[in-house]
Structures are given as structure tokens and as C-alpha cells.
């Protein structure tokens, strides 16, 4: 018989499959597309299952219509507003809808933008704070070389990056068992004339708890009456800004508070969109310094643009618009309520096991954390439980809390759209089984190197 052609050769005997591909040098020659595809496909099989990843806040499931729309818009570059004017207009539609959702006094006076995620959105909010503060200090003939930003010690790492990259002193208010979030307590000890703003987190990354923005604003009101310092708030609503309007509509945290200048959120978290897209809105254009805005021509007019990235995907903006149209307020409320019910079901079940104490129960955003009950065991830790659950495919992190609570380790579950009640029941059974297994150990688990922090 003659030699077999490349297409007829059994898959794992073809050139490229029979050798280990080098990772440290650019390949000299190529390979068949099927072979290259199979190599990449096989490698990512070693990743965890995204749907079972309860560590991430990021969306891991969308419906078939969204998948089809995504495939039709892979090639859209969001920055090309001249070339894609309708996508640019849809971006504006989205942030104006958010401005309305967050009770902006006048949507037409507000300004906003999309970003690659809530981290970039936070940095834009911080930059606006810094530039406004600097301009005011300069106009008054005062020094402006030592800006600081006040926030919780449990703040997401993007704020640490902002302070590092843009030369701002971070001032962290430590958490304690009595003050589990930034709540305005002792805030006067951290702010001064060089404070560009205060960050309030609507859904702390470590635990999912809301920081009480109204209480923080009231504390800053009292400070202003006493000292004259008028310090604005940026609400980092990466998760909560897409939860609170639907599940806690009476909670006052947004532009109903005049001290809130800007709000950011992550469209690819509880906004329901594949990564990555974020949003930031200012209650009024006055709070976004004009010298930070670039203006580009589109549709015979001009559109302001303010971002750290240049080229970035436009598809996610179209997906966000699709979801806003597809779900509306009532649909989002239903989606978020379903996630919250799953979170409450899981937190109740975990509390009933007896080995754990809840840090919170998921009644803010559908995220909750727990710790080992003091004195329960010396034989295992929450990291051991995390390892046991990983054997079943569940990715549930265990990590130390920040700063003054660094001796406390917690474990956290993020409930997203796609984690059904049925799947949650399977998870709860696995947690019960893993806990029973660990409780039956006759001696301590071997000590292993543990993570020193958590910045997810």
C-alpha cells in the first residue's frame, strides 16, 4: 500500500503530536490546523471547569443568542468609533441606562464610559479624583504633591495598583471583628486636606458584604462641618452595583447621595457578560475634568473618550446591550434573586454542618464566607477542605483575611448565574462528605505551604 496522506494519518501519530512542543522558542515551521487545535485543546483540558469555579466573580455562561452575537462581533474594535458608529452609540446607551439605574439626578448631565473591566473603571474614577484635587489645590496656590486615597484594608488589588501607578498614598482603614467593613468609624483619623477621595465598596471581594455608603457619606458630612474638607466618594460597585438596584432597591448607596461623584461596575460579573467589560459613570460632567477627556469625531459630531486602554473588544459592549434589552429590570431582578436564593441555601446548609461559622450569609451580593468554628479541630484547615473539594472539581478558595484579621482564614463561595439549585445541592453534599472525611482523621493533615494572600 502507498504511504498515507497527512489527513489520513491517525490523529495522534501525525507530525507534531508525536513530540513535545517547545514552549521557550518560536517554532521554526508550522503544523496542520487540526494538529495545532488539538494541542491547545488538550492543554486546556488541564484547567478547571469554569462552571464549577466558585472562586471567580466572572461570568462563565451566557445563552445561545449571546454566543451567536458574540461570534458575529469578534472583529469589532471598540476604539474605532468612526468606523463603528453604531457600536459607539450602543456604548453610550449602556452607560446612560446605568446612570438611570443608579439614580443620576440628570442622565443628560452625566458622563460615562465602558472599560475592559471594573479595575480600569476604578482607576479612571481615581484619576478624576486626583486631577480635580490637584487643579483645586493649584488654583488656591497650595501644594499638591502628596495626594492620598482612603479605603478599607479589604479593598480589591486594583486600588493598590492605582495608588502605586499614579503616585497616590493609600490609607487603609483596618477591619476588625467589630467593624467588618469600612463603615465611617474613625474616618476622621485618616482624611486630611490631601485626601482626594474615599472609596466605598459595594460588595467586598473577601466576603461579599456591602460597605454602608450612606454611613460613610454621613461621616464625611460631619467631617466637612467640622473642618471644611469636602471629600467625595467613589463607589466601587464591581459586583453590588448590578445587584443592589434589583435586590435591595431601598438601599441608598448611589447617586441619591450627593457626595457620591462616581460609580463603577463590572459588566462581566453580575452584569452577566463574558469577560471583559466594565463601566464607570460620573453623576455630572463637572466631576470628570475636561483635561482628561479626548474627543473623537463620529456621526458628523464628536464623542468624548476617556480610557487607559486603546484597542479593546467591542463585542462585550454589544452583549451588555443585548442583556439590558433581553432582561430589562424585571429580568435582572429575577436572575439576581435566583442567585441569592442559591447563596442563602448554601450558607444555611454549611452553617448546619457544625464545623463552621458564617462570616456572612450572602444576603448582600450572592457571595458568602465562613471560618472554622474555634476549637472544632486541630487536624485540618480550610485549605485542606479546599483541596478535598478540588478533587470533585469544585474550585472554592481558602485564604487569610487582610491586615488586623490576617490570623483568620475564611473560605468563600461566589454564586453566579449558571449555578442551579440542583448543582448547589450536589456541592453541599460534597462539602458535607469532605468535612466528615476530615473530621474522621486520627491525626493532623501534613503541613503544606499555604497562600499568604488573596487578590482575586
From TrEMBL:
One of its GO terms (molecular function) is glutamate decarboxylase activity. One of its GO terms (biological process) is L-glutamate catabolic process. The modification N6-(pyridoxal phosphate)lysine is found at residue 269. InterPro entries: Glutamate_decarboxylase, PyrdxlP-dep_de-COase, PyrdxlP-dep_Trfase, PyrdxlP-dep_Trfase_major. It comes from the Bacteria. It holds the Pfam family Pyridoxal_deC. Coiled coil: none annotated. It catalyses: L-glutamate + H(+) = 4-aminobutanoate + CO2. Its EC number is 4.1.1.15. Keywords: Decarboxylase, Lyase, Pyridoxal phosphate. It is an enzyme of class 4 (lyase). Its cofactor is pyridoxal 5'-phosphate. GO terms for cellular component: cytosol. Belongs to the group II decarboxylase family. This is Glutamate decarboxylase. It comes from Microbacterium dextranolyticum.
